[in-house]
Design brief:
276 residues, alpha/beta, Rossmann fold, 2 domains, ten-stranded mixed beta sheet, 9 helices, elongated
Length: 276
């Protein structure tokens, strides 16, 4: 059975991530692996006692799945992604702390590196997310980049599990006809894929004005429909990317109060060319 792997460090953000992981794993019928990355020479006994106490408290919520944990030592990003690979995980979940984002706890400081290295999709969730609301509405932005469609398979997995509606967002970042046609063609491919997989969806196209940021356009749309998740690639169109992790992805993770599902190019291979 493939697992949902969750990073945990006793912060409130990571605790909320475990809560969400239980809901997701119950729906996917996947076991959960909680991962605590300890420091060198850190005493394991109190860590194990507290984790086991917490796991026992949520055990009644588990619906035929297992919640297990492992302690690892080393760089958190390396250890989390290594565990995800070893477990053939379908998802890695990382919690962050409120609107202060990625600088407040161990997992937060390493979120970027985790996303960059993860062989599986990573779900970033903040502690101020409304966990009482199901993941009913998923935004999937589609641009003209080669890899933009790879995130659709991961988003569809969530949509099937939660009975969600995927909101396809075609982003026109250029007035050039060839670029716009690429976006149009990609949207059509994704629509056929979702239809074949019986996933409910809507489609919206937005012009990204020169004085506007792609991140803000996406977030404005997501907030306007009260979205529960945004699925993105770790790199977007080349003009919007920098460093290893695309600037679009960095901004989205920092600014979004909505959970962000990130997919590294080639991490999820979804071939839609033959979805006619």
């Amino acid at each position: 059975m493939n697992r949902v792997v969750v990073g945990f460090d006793f912060s409130s953000g990571s605790a909320y991530a475990v809560d969400l992981a239980i809901d997701i794993a119950n729906r996917l019928k996947s076991d959960i692996r909680l991962v605590y990355v300890k420091e060198k020479n850190e005493n394991e006994e109190p860590i194990r006692e507290e984790i086991e106490r917490r796991n026992a408290a949520v055990e009644p919520l588990l619906q035929g799945i297992k919640l297990e944990y492992v302690l690892r030592e080393g760089n958190p990003a390396d250890e989390l992604t290594a565990q995800a690979a070893e477990d053939h995980a379908v998802l890695l979940i990382v919690g962050t702390h409120g609107m202060s984002g990625l600088k407040t706890n161990m997992l937060g400081r390493n979120s970027y590196h985790t996303i960059e290295k993860s062989p599986v999709p990573v779900l970033i969730v903040r502690e101020d997310f409304n966990f009482n609301k199901s993941l009913d509405t998923i935004v999937v932005p589609i641009d003209s980049s080669d890899d933009t469609r790879q995130k659709v398979g991961a988003a569809a997995m969530f949509a099937k599990a939660f009975g969600s509606t995927i909101h396809l967002l075609g982003l026109y970042t250029s007035t050039t006809a060839d670029i716009r046609n690429i976006v149009n063609n990609y949207i059509k491919m994704v629509e056929r894929y979702l239809e074949k997989n019986e996933v409910e969806f809507t489609t919206q196209f937005i012009e990204v004005e020169k004085n506007k940021n792609v991140t803000s356009v996406t977030l404005d749309y997501a907030n306007s429909i009260q979205a529960d998740m945004i699925a993105i690639m770790t790199e977007q169109e080349k003009s919007f990317s920098s460093l290893i992790l695309g600037n679009y992805a960095q901004q989205m993770i920092n600014q979004s109060s909505i959970p962000v599902l990130t997919v590294r190019p080639k991490a999820v291979v979804t071939d839609m060319r033959n979805e006619n």
